[in-house]
């Protein structure tokens, strides 16, 4: 995915665009560029690498003008260099384009344009877009809006696009095709903003409108007009959002990831706030409009997600089946969309997504919709595409998550699934009042328990000092904490680049044992739950093969101290809530190891915040 920012107004555009790109740097940091329009010409500055490199270029070659566009890139087509950086230009340099998406049919378009005399400078698919616009203008399109419309008819794939033309001052044209990422229009006082995500412009305005797939916007200093791609005008009312961009500051922490790990007591509190009644066990989810009759009618639940959200969904399978008595499938969004899923109007499809803009998850939602299923979403970004598409929605309420590796959103996703499962279970008559109250009591203690775990992280520094030179690690869990093992392994490889695998401990004899020797650190999640004795047996199997065991255990479990090399103790917690607490030490361990290895914690190589497309 990539970051997009545009500005039209009376202020100097370049600093505003640059700061917006800073706020979106988590969306891509392979290269960046800004184009500003002035006196009938467009000046472009670009640089490979992170935004600091672009800042250096701007210091040496400042840009001046009151309207422009900027982009920070996560590469798909072409090497990471200045030539492939956005914005891309047409032959004359009159049209510039920034894009989030992949032009799936760019090769035949590029070949045709070359035959028509167009010269290409980059390896990217994006560069065909300004040349297509240039060609349509040459063929008689009366202006940029119509040329962009014609261009959109020719390209395949999902796209978020912003463009401007030297001959049409004070005007930006934005468009969205499919689910490649959002396009947000911000309303200011005598100025307008465009961005691919809200944090880019929240410091300037909270009055926002969102383009849906198949929509365009013509943005000027004092107005914006909306259209369907066929040119039909449409009305759109902006919304006022509440996020404060100051909350994205690091607040004294060395990295955003460290800050976000330590924000979990607050994020868990916020996701519970106003939703539970401990006295009655009742759950209140304002964004879930289903009646009790509808909830009883669901025959199957399918969870679709990617990455960390998929791990949350795997834990959700245990939660929903136990509390709601409904069979659950968990699918990768990227796999679900490429087969013919068995889903019907009696199915509920739950999308779990931090950004609400992950293309594979959005396409999975669209596929489920085509089959007539009801859609629900657990999503962190209010107003995102997943949020808008769902019939029912639960907002994670974790606040902006800037680090690429998700932490606080994951634990809130677990809690949100518990809440939805309780609502379903109560409506379906399979969850008792007594069990509901028991879960409520466990939920309200989670923020405090999380704070206790985070209060002293010195043991993780000591562990990191012994693990940072490892080349491989193994994470073992059973039951609902098998997904926790997967998430722990993902975190260590995401940010420290240590190869790690998360495995179900019950499968050790089916191949896993072959990996274990004295050089392999093995993290075992062995809380005192219904599978505790089995995990102790698994730990003994590791030790018999000279593996080094780091165990997560429940306070008071003295037996495990005799078996493991190191023990991290956690407070007692309900089995279904245990992934929330068990995940936090694994986040801290991954963070400390990555810092010790000198890795770029917030922006790990080859990754971006949510996996859409360029």
Description:
By secondary structure, this protein is α/β, with parallel strands linked by helices. It is built from 18 helices and 25 strands. The chain has an eight-stranded antiparallel sheet, with helices on one face. Strands 5-6-7-8-12-13-14 form a seven-stranded antiparallel sheet, covered by helices on one side. It is globular, with a radius of gyration of 25 Å. The mean pLDDT is 91.
Briefly say what this structure is.
The chain has 614 residues and is of the alpha/beta class. The protein is built from 18 helices and 25 strands. Helix 4 crosses helix 5, helix 9 runs parallel beside helix 13 and helix 9 runs antiparallel to helix 16.
Keywords summarizing the entry:
614 residues; alpha/beta; 25 strands; 35% helix; 22% strand; globular
Q: Mind telling me the C-alpha Rg?
A: 25 Å
Strand arrangement within the widest β-sheet reads: 3-2-4-1-10-9-11-15
Reported for the largest beta sheet, the result is: 8 strands, antiparallel
Structural class of the secondary structure composition? alpha/beta
Shape: globular
Number of strands: 25
How far the N terminus sits from the C terminus, by CA atoms, comes to 5 Å
How large a portion of the residues is in β-strands, by DSSP E? 15-25%
Number of helical segments?
A: 18
Helix content: 25-40%
Ranges where pLDDT stays below 50 over 5 or more residues in a row are: none
Quote the average pLDDT: 91
Query: Which oligomerization state do the chains in this entry correspond to?
Result: single chain
């Amino acid at each position: 995915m990539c970051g997009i920012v545009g500005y039209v107004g009376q202020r100097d555009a370049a600093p505003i665009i640059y700061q917006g790109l800073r706020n979106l740097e988590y969306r891509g940091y392979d290269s960046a560029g800004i184009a500003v329009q002035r006196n009938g010409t467009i000046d472009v500055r670009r640089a490979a690498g992170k935004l600091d490199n672009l800042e250096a270029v701007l210091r040496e070659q400042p840009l001046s003008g009151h309207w422009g566009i900027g982009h920070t890139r996560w590469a798909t087509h072409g090497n990471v260099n200045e030539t492939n950086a956005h914005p891309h230009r047409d032959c004359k340099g009159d049209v510039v384009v920034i894009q989030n998406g992949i032009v799936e049919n760019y090769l035949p378009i590029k070949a045709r344009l070359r035959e028509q005399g167009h010269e290409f400078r980059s390896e990217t698919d994006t560069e065909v877009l300004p040349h297509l616009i240039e060609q349509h203008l040459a063929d008689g399109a009366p202006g940029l809006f119509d040329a962009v419309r014609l261009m959109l008819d020719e390209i395949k794939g999902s796209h978020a696009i912003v463009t401007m033309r030297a001959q049409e001052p004070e005007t930006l044209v934005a468009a969205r095709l499919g689910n490649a990422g959002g396009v947000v229009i911000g309303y200011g006082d005598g100025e307008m903003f465009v961005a691919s995500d809200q944090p880019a412009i929240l410091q300037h305005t909270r009055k926002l409108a969102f383009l849906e797939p198949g929509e365009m916007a013509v943005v000027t200093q004092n107005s914006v007009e909306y259209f369907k791609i066929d040119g039909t005008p449409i009305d759109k009312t902006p919304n006022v959002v509440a996020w404060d961009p100051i909350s994205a500051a690091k607040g004294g922490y060395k990295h955003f990831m460290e800050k976000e790990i330590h924000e979990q007591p607050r994020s868990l509190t916020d996701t519970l706030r106003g939703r539970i009644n401990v006295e009655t066990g009742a759950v209140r989810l304002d964004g879930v409009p289903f009646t009790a009759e509808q909830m009883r009618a669901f025959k199957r639940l399918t969870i679709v997600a990617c990455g960390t959200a998929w791990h949350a969904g795997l834990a959700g399978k245990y939660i929903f089946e136990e509390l709601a008595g409904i069979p659950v499938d968990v699918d990768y969004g990227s796999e679900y969309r490429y087969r013919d899923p068995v889903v019907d109007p009696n199915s509920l499809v739950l999308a779990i997504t931090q950004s609400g803009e992950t293309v594979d998850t959005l396409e999975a939602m669209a596929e489920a919709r085509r089959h007539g299923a009801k859609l629900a979403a657990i999503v962190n970004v209010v107003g995102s595409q997943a949020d808008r598409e769902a019939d029912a929605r639960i907002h994670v309420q974790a606040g902006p998550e800037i680090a690429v590796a998700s932490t606080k959103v994951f634990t809130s996703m677990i809690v949100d699934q518990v809440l939805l499962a309780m609502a379903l279970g109560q409506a379906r008559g399979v969850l008792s009042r007594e069990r509901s109250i028991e879960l409520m009591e466990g939920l309200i203690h989670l923020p405090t328990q999380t704070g206790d775990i985070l209060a002293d992280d010195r043991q993780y520094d000591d562990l990191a000092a012994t693990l940072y030179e490892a080349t491989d690690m193994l994470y073992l869990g059973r039951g609902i904490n098998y997904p926790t093992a997967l998430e722990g392994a993902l975190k260590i490889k995401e940010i420290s680049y240590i190869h790690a695998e998360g495995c179900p401990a019950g499968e050790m004899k089916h191949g896993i044992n072959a990996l274990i020797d004295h050089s392999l650190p093995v993290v075992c999640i062995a809380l005192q739950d219904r599978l505790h004795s089995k995990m102790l047996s698994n730990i003994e199997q590791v030790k018999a093969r000279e593996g080094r065991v780091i165990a997560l255990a429940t306070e008071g479990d003295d037996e495990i101290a005799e078996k493991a090399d190191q023990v991290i103790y956690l407070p007692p917690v309900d089995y279904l809530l245990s992934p929330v607490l068990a995940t936090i030490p694994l986040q801290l361990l991954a963070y400390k190891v990555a810092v010790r290895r000198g890795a770029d914690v917030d922006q790990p190589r080859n990754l971006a915040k949510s996996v859409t497309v360029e």
